[in-house]
Write a structure and sequence with these properties.
It is a single chain. The protein is mainly α. The protein has a single domain, classed as Orthogonal Bundle (Hypothetical protein af1432), CATH 1.10.3210. The protein is about 60% helix and about 0% strand. The protein is built from nine helices and no strands. Helix 2 packs across helix 6 and helix 6 crosses helix 7. It is globular and about 50 Å long. It starts with 7 loop residues before the first helix and ends in a 16-residue tail after the last helix. The mean pLDDT is about 95. The structure holds fe (ii) ion (2 copies). One fe (ii) ion binds next to helix 2.
Length: about 200
């Protein structure tokens, strides 16, 4: 059992060691920002929440068929503490692991991971291509159009919202607010205010 709590720099170096894709990098930054935003809102450990958001898909580029399982192996090897490992395993609950999200951190990761995808796609179809002038209504409008961002499993987001005991709109709102913090880095600055 290890009690190693990595710095963000260590987490970022590890992420880059295993991931070269720009889209996965942007996804990692998005989830990190949303986790930080939520932690600050709840008075929780923003550093830890952020790092877990950043590293949650560590193995996805190289080992998509062993998602979460390989991350566990790598993080154990590098001495990461069990708390971090358990949290990243739990985002694959019912998909690639049987580790159920229990803490607020884990439930938030479970819901927000999938939601960042829907928010990203919703921002990109706006005339401004910006997350800075977008609100939760734009995302809600796309919710029932299952052909829109078809890869996003709405059921997972609903399951996450239920675990947290929160409604979808406030979850979407927080997701947008968190991602705004890194709008530039995730390519969603666009031209805010542009009508068409
Ligand atoms: Fe994942
Ligand atoms: Fe993810």
């Amino acid at each position: 059992m290890s009690d190693f709590s990595p710095t963000r720099e260590v987490a970022m170096t590890l992420f880059k060691e295993f991931n070269k894709s720009e889209s996965l990098y942007r996804h990692a930054l998005s989830v990190e920002a949303v986790m930080r935003y939520r932690a600050l809102k709840e008075g929780a450990d923003a550093e830890m929440w952020g790092i877990i958001g950043l590293i949650h898909d560590l193995d996805y580029e190289m080992y998509p068929d062993e998602h979460c399982i390989k991350s566990q192996e790598i993080m154990k090897e590098r001495g990461w503490s069990d708390e971090y490992i358990r949290a990243i395993m739990s985002h694959g609950f019912g998909i690639c692991t049987d580790v159920e999200p229990v803490s607020r951190l884990e439930k938030t990761l479970f819901a927000m991971d999938e939601l960042t995808g829907l928010v990203t796609t919703s921002a990109l179809v706006r005339p401004s291509r910006s997350i800075l002038d977008m609100n939760s209504k734009s995302v809600r409008k796309k919710w029932n159009d299952r052909r829109f961002a078809a890869g996003v499993d709405r059921g997972i987001i609903e399951k996450g919202a239920a675990m947290l005991g929160e409604d979808l709109s406030s979850l979407i709102e927080d997701c947008i607010m968190g991602m705004r913090e890194v709008a530039e880095e995730i390519g969603l600055r666009g031209n805010p205010g542009q009508e068409s």
